[in-house]
Specification:
The protein is of the alpha/beta class. Strand 1, helix 1 and strand 2 form a beta-alpha-beta unit. Helix 9 packs across helix 14. The termini are far apart. The structure holds 6-O-phosphono-beta-D-glucopyranose. The site of 6-O-phosphono-beta-D-glucopyranose (BG6) has 3 residues, from loops.
């Protein structure tokens, strides 16, 4: 199979920080056909004039910023660099698209993947121009990187323009969380094993918590982040995608649409928010100065490019429900924030306690922890008897599975997986336009309520687990977040 992968925004951050390292890993793992075998070419396009060699040197230098185990040595880079090409393009000039088409047609690869790693403002322009020169044939796929819209109306507009040029199966919307190995394992856990399915329902599950905690602040992205906030940046996409994976019904097959149809049903079944529910069930916060990992860090309002007095949220916790037979009444808690105590992404399924306790003092109910990062694994928390005497209390124990240890050499990073899938045309891990719009529809009332609300977000100290109100939100149902249990 031959392919051409075109990276629009070929000198931008996303390209050199994420895409090139991922492509290099795929190359190193022997998963990317090499040019020697007549397989792949990677073409970076950007505004500046550069030669192929000039671009290769630029990427070589950028690799210095990648974690050491993922950097190529000289020999590896020399071989990887043979795949890299560069083309100057002004994205507003129709002639430049005609030139790109001629370059691609001269080879006629089996598959052409056009990765839009540019600012989303450019998506409509680029898509229209690609359509105008006929770069939308059946062998072409376009990959769209988030943010895909700022609200429902802008997401729909992007989808309208993309849909006028490409069929749905040609448009691949990235949510990089879906590429994480732990998320593949969530599918395997649920649909490749029979053990949990009978318990995966309201009769056995007390509540489900999804935490996507980051220790980092907004860094140098203050201007972007301030116009976005945690709800748009992490909840509308990553957290909701994880929720659909947890709550969906078993799909009839592993076909992309069979899976995506089930995920969409979950999004449609989410309890809608009205203004009262926003006030009651959603907590927004903003970090103040504090300590993270023993280092003092500034408040959000002191970060570069953050406007004075900003009311943008850097933390969200919310309670929702999936209104269907399987999940009626089970609280789903979602929480994400910057400058929290640790980088920690996990899903906790808290089971109901035994119906008739016979052991003294055994209060811990079972829980299953699906760990996404920094560790990737599963923990099943149980109660066990030590065997030390008749009236002993049961002790909490856990069965731990560490996937990085279980599969040491085969782990594939999120972008590597998604790029290989885009090239191979596997759509399972890409978000369909109707899912994406439904997720926007669900968060819209929260955005609207906040826009009308003069109350600032609740402050929390950097290095904490967020505002106290987030604990109160779950305590109201008699629950606690994982670190409080
Ligand atoms: C991105 C957000 O989508 O995900 C960032 O825009 C966030 O703000 C990042 O830091 C988190 O991704 P990961 O893979 O590091 O958890």
């Amino acid at each position: 199979m031959s392919f051409d992968l075109v990276l629009f925004g070929g000198t931008g951050d996303l390209t050199w920080r994420k895409l090139m390292p991922a492509l290099f890993q795929a190359f190193r793992h022997g998963k990317l056909p090499t040019s020697a075998r007549g397989g792949g070419r990677i073409l970076a396009v950007a505004r500046e004039a550069r030669s192929d060699d000039g671009y290769r040197a630029f990427i070589r230098e950028r690799f210095a910023e990648v974690e050491p185990s993922k950097r190529p040595n000289d020999d590896e880079f020399a071989r990887f660099a043979e795949l890299l090409h560069y083309r100057r393009m002004d994205l507003s000039r129709p002639d430049d698209y005609a030139g790109l088409k001629a370059w691609l047609d001269a080879r006629g690869a089996d598959t052409v993947v056009l990765f839009l790693a540019t600012s989303p403002n450019l998506f409509p322009l680029v898509c229209e121009q690609l359509g105008a020169v006929g770069l939308n044939g059946p062998q072409v796929r376009v990959v769209l990187e988030k943010p895909l819209g700022h609200d429902l109306a802008s997401a729909r507009e992007i989808n309208r323009v993309v849909g006028a040029v490409f069929r749905e199966a040609q448009a691949l919307r990235i949510d990089h969380y879906l590429g994480k190995p732990a998320v593949q394992n969530l599918m395997a856990l649920r649909f490749g094993n029979a053990l949990f399915e009978p318990l995966w329902r309201r009769e056995s599950v007390a509540n489900i918590q999804i935490t996507l905690a980051e220790a980092i602040g907004v860094g140098t992205r203050g201007d972007f982040y301030d116009g976005t906030g945690a709800l748009r940046d992490m909840v509308q996409n990553h957290a909701l995608q994880l929720l659909t994976m947890i709550a969906m019904e078993p799909p009839a097959s592993s076909d992309a649409d069979a899976i995506r149809d089930e995920k969409l049903k979950v999004l449609k079944a989410l309890k809608p928010f009205g203004p009262e529910a926003v006030a009651r069930d959603v907590v927004r916060g903003q970090y103040r100065a504090g300590n993270v990992g023993g280092q003092p860090v500034p408040a959000y309002l002191e970060e570069v490019k953050v406007p004075a007095g900003s009311r943008t949220e850097t933390f969200v916790a919310l309670r929702t429900e999936v209104q269907n037979w399987r999940w009626a009444g089970v609280p789903f808690y979602l929480r994400t924030g910057k400058r929290l105590a640790a980088r920690d992404a996990q899903i906790v399924v808290n089971f109901r306690p035994v119906p008739h306790p016979i052991f003294p003092g055994s209060t811990h109910a079972n829980k299953l922890v699906i760990k996404l990062q920094p560790d990737d694994g599963l923990e099943l928390h149980l109660l066990a008897a030590k065997g030390s005497g008749n009236d002993e209390r049961l002790s909490p124990v856990s069965l731990d599975l560490d996937f990085d240890k279980a599969f040491p050499s085969q782990r594939v990073g999120a972008y590597e997986r998604l790029l290989l899938d885009a090239i191979a045309g596997r759509l399972n891990l890409f978000v369909r336009s109707d899912e994406q719009e439904q997720a926007w529809r669900w968060v819209s009332p929260v955005l609207d309520a906040w826009a009308d609300d003069p109350t600032p977000p609740r402050p929390y100290a950097a290095g904490s687990w967020g505002p106290a109100a987030a604990s109160a939100l779950v305590a109201r149902d008699g629950c606690a977040w994982a670190e409080e249990q």
